[in-house]
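Sample pair:
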Amino acid sequence: MPALLFALPCAPDEPRGNVTTARRIARGLVAHGWLSGRCDARTDPADWPSADVVVALHAANAAPQVQAACDPMRGVPTLRGRPFLVMFTGTDLVAEPAAAARNAVASSAAAVALGTAARAAALASYPEPAGGIHLIRQGLEPLPESAAWPPGVPPLEAEDELLLLPCGVRAVKDPARAVRALAPLAATRPRLRLWIAGPEMEGAAAAELREAILRANVGIPQPWVRWLGAVPREQLRPLVQHSRLVLSSSHAEGGAPNALLEAAECGVPVLASDISAHRDFPGAAQLFGDDAELRARTAELLDDPHGAQRLGEQLRAHALLHFNAAAEARSWDALLRRHTPVTARSR
């Protein structure tokens, strides 16, 4: 069986979207005869598992390290001369990437973008590798079923209007924006609740979020906004199902965010910031431009529960049709096999 290694810009078990993506693709590739492992691209490549082909998840924060590890002359013995691919994951799609990132993409066997906008951005900013830049959409993997309410999460009352913002707390996700934007709405809706579910990933962003929450809850008998911290993926489904809306205030995404696809599978409507990746999903009709539009769209959906239910059903049907995990795995298998040595493919 050919062996694949995902090189991540983080620890292999962190609660981050890149880890969720790598795990999902790896599970899908099992049916196609692949063995898969994960490593932290920031660690010594000599400690990485051996593989027949490597996928670097992030052109700037993983691909240069993978390029060095796979170098035919100077790479580490377990990976020397192995082909590698690059997956663009969002924050690497900038107008002027660093030279190391551009060189790594140019040297790769092929690259992958997760949406039409992401592929266009990659083609505009990076040299196209010999094997091209391919579009493989994110696959939808439903959240695990769970009847238990997550431990440590406060109970909800039947009248509460829960908005859920699932994200790692860092500047690019900008959860503090949602707190500030929705505070005027909370002042008129005493049952409104905004919960942020995700780990601290950047100290400055975490400090900004804590300050925004402190200010938003001043003078209110019961806090309307809470940061829950990291909630394990296997415990998220009850939170999503009890939400009236799932939000994304992100400034950049590599493709359809896992959190929004997971919410759609649960039949929960979503609203997202107006960025190119969100135009792929949930689509232009579910985007907000400024803070006033976020408040207005939120109030509109909260005031029309039947309309919100219809929207959730429509998003679910769209996500299941266009973000199919089996199709994702087939596309990855076909691309990887084109760039894997024949000896490895025939094992």
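The two ends are 5 Å apart (CA to CA).
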